[in-house]
Amino acid sequence: KGLTTPAAVVARMDDGDPASQIVLDVVANASDAIVGFCHGRVFGLETVQESFQRVNNAREGALVLARRPVASIVSVTIYGTVIDPQWYEFDPAAGLLWRIGIIGEHLPWYGRVIVVRYQAGYTLPADENCTLPMRYQEAAILTCVAMLTGAGKDPTLRTVTNEGVGAYAFGGGGTGTIPLAAIPLLDGDADDVLIA
Q: pLDDT, tens digit, for every residue of 47-101?
């Protein structure tokens, strides 16, 4: 699914039909370009299963989940036994899963195999109750507009200036189809940690 909607792109351009195949394709291509720029990060909400082998983290305390943000923990299993949710808590943004004791203290995880099933990612703009941060949506819209307005033009062209209107700069230096205006919106994700 896309990181923006065809309707948002058409509204920004103040022209076009959100149902046209060209706009639909551009939304898909722009979203793919952003995913590529962010080293394959999966933005959409999905259920993930991670296995931790031979865990003995008396010092660290928390298990570090690969996908962020964590929306919910579906289950935690140690030695094939499902752990009651009252015995763990998580930090959604950091992707940290703590084991907790009777009085709420953080305890170390131990186990030969710990399996964590969880939901991670964002609900996307086409879904109800979108949770995708606006910076990603804006980057997708900017990329779509650049693709639509740049179609059929010289690919080596980096800046277009219209007298009395302004200038528009296109990405260069290996950014592919991501316009320069979108790069700061994605900057923290280009080098993100542990992306599944």
A: 999 999 988 775 568 999 999 999 999 999 998 999 999 999 999 999 999 999 9
Cα distances (angstroms) measured from residue 117 to each of 8, 52, 70, 126: 34, 11, 11, 25
**Angstrom distances, CA of residue 60 to CA of 22, 54, 70, 99, 180:** 50, 14, 19, 11, 39
Structure tokens at 97: 């899963």
The chain-wide mean pLDDT, for the chain, equals: 85
Q: Sort 98 into a burial class: Cβ within 10 Å, 0-12 / 13-18 / 19+.
A: middle
Q: Are 123 and 104 in contact (CB under 8 A)?
A: no
Neighbours of 136 (CB within 10 A): 23
* Burial (Cβ within 10 Å: 0-12, 13-18, ≥19) of residue 57: middle
- Residue 179 to residues 9, 103, 144, 159, 184, Cα–Cα distance (Å): 15, 52, 9, 10, 10
**Alpha carbon distance, N-terminus to C-terminus of the chain:** 17
133, 121 Cβ separation under 8 angstroms: no
